[in-house]
Records
---
Amino acid sequence: MNRELIASGSRTGPRHQVNQDRCAHWRGDDLIIALVADGVGGHEAGERASWLLVDSFVQQLGVVGFGDRFTRLREQPPPSPITVAKHLPGPVQWVEALLRRANDRILDEASGLGQGAIMATTAVVAVIDRLRGSFHICHVGDSRAYLYANQGLRQLTRDHVEATATGSRKRHAVTRAVGAHLVLPLEITPIAHRGTRFAQGDVLM
């Protein structure tokens, strides 16, 4: 079996002074979880929200590359009292539960910033579970996942945005984000791709 190469990189965009991107990954023998978050809102609030999201995963799954805990993750049910979709594979249920817990954590911290304060982040998480032969993308917001395979690029997510007109300019506002809703409107998509087996040259972005 080929060993996947996992890499990450980010840069501050031309219109921003602070990089609000955060990313992390965890890999076991037959399970990979990769996460990207991009803060929404003011500089400090968005940066803090994306950090809180990644930190929520780190607290539950351990450091990057930590594999031993994946076995226990598959054997145990999601932490209560979070309600998750029971038909999903175990690791996907855990990711859903962690995203919902991170949503509550961000909401709780944002409540101390004053009325109308925005502290939120987009999120896209890939869950590749070879044990069950499943490949899922969990996402909220406009951070995207792509798959490059067979010399073609395929977008795996749809943006949660709406277009708004301001004078002669057209802008796109994010309609879903972690920390922006009391109940997180998470989208979970099963991906069909060679039974989760990646061939030489395939790239998940």
---
Amino acid sequence: MEDGSQDTFGRRDVRELLEDTYAIYGKNFLVLLAITATLYALYSGIAIVADLGLGYSAGMATPTYDIAAAISTISAGLAYIWIVMLASTILIPVADGALICGTAQYAMSGKIAYGRAYKQALRRYGTLVLTTLLQGLALLLLTITVIGIPAAIYFAVRWAFVYQAVVIEGYGVAEAFSRSSALVKTNWWRVFGLMLLWVVILVAL
């Protein structure tokens, strides 16, 4: 593994990072869209089918004072949430991992192979899912109380590169969190700013 102090591609300012991102996604839009859409579309389909099958949205849209109907709607809601969370845990880490692998392929060779991206991500499937669960649980527990929210933000930034550590560098779960923390250690505010900028861009779109 490379030492965290090494910088293969050189330090980039925000403008250069945005230009690089635009160039990668502009040149490879269709293949990156295919990588992202494959499992996200399946996830959305599962959520829609679960909603229709359980009648959750229909129950919520129909006001009722009947206790039995209210209990049925709540039960349907809990079942829907469970199904959606399970589908998300199973599918989304692979989609995100494949997207990371694809962009890494472009950085290294100038080409992105759909099948290879998913193959590389699936090879690390168990570690990706476990990493997602631990990261999500830790951040959820921190945000339960108001005083834990700043800590949740702090660790969310420190752990920004756990997926990259898993699928690109081959680290295990614990090592991936340590690796991401080491990468962010002296650049926390910079990474936070970039993450915030990315959120603003997504909201604007």
---
Amino acid sequence: MKVLLINGSPHKEGCTYTALTEVAKTLNEENIETEINISIEDGFYGVDKKILLNDLEGKPKIITIKVPEGIQDGEKIRLIGQGKQGKNGGKNGDLYIKINIEDSKKFKLDGINLSTIIPITPWEAVLGTKAKVESIDGTRTQIYIPNGVQSGETIEIPNKGYKNAKGERGNLIGKLEIVIPEKITSEEKEMFKKLKEISKFNPRSV
């Protein structure tokens, strides 16, 4: 079995896929390049994806690719022999598939780190509190939020972020966001009025 070298790493011809960090600079004219979008969760756990291509006769064909867990945004998967048919009896080209990882509503990707929003109340920001933060693997980590924090400050949770192909985890970076209640009770309103009367704090004079 012939062994190919891709970015300095051995790859046995005939394997289902090979992840690349960049496209080879000299590509055979029979090779094909395309790209697909996947979710952060699919990149974290790995997923089988079906893609629709047209063959030489213009007929659609479906190819299933295995996206390995821990694939990085922008990496490429190589399918040997799935490109255009070789000319004059030559070997078929290869298919290169670029993987684009899309941010979700809950997580944003930065290398192998993830960021998320941690909403807190005004009184939690003033007094400090404990909170549980969910990571991409479904586990929840309890964190301590110190008193006097501001919106935009961050808390870093080690080894709870994304991962690489070796399974090494990045960090989860929680961005604090102070959320004002849209509706309050009459009792809460009176308490805020009382606070307004007794407090000497003025952020515009700081």
---
Amino acid sequence: MSDQRARADKGRFATPSDKPAGNFVGSRFTSRRQFSFAVASLILFSDVQAHDFHVSICDIKFNPHSGNTEIVHSYPMHDIDSAFWLMYGRRMDTALAVDEALLHAYFDKTFVIETAIKSRLKIRWVGVNSDADTLTVYQELPGIRLGPALTLQNTVLMEHFPTQTNNVNVRMDRAAGTTIANGTTTITPTTTTLTFDRKNTVQRLS
């Protein structure tokens, strides 16, 4: 009788050596892979929270030699890695065609230029490169020169970082006046800086 009770007690109060190996009893992590993923996420996003200053720069200007408007985005590589991890569960590798395709699709949704009648301009993807600190994205508008009345939408990374700020510098060539002597028009390049955040995701060129 005492032996039966001892065996019953042992079944109710198992010692650590009696528990199945490789399983965290009472935890939601049921595999080493899930646990590793959770630890990596914790480390990555504790670093992200350590700096709450998320800023990007975009330069847009017309290239008279190609006849295209060039668009160059610069983002901290750490922020891109963090966002990529949130969306796809891993860091980005710019050497992989599939990762560039994912980034391309993401920018198509979050960086948009429209005309006054809400017609969306087709932005061509040129490519991407990166180093340890910065990710640079290259786009262009073939055969288009930017002008007033165009609307820009820039929400890149804003769904991941509440304080994300995207600064866009738009250089436009404006006619400043006419020189009567030779009939030519003086073109003055001007740069307009638009600042996008969660409260200002859409802005119009003027």
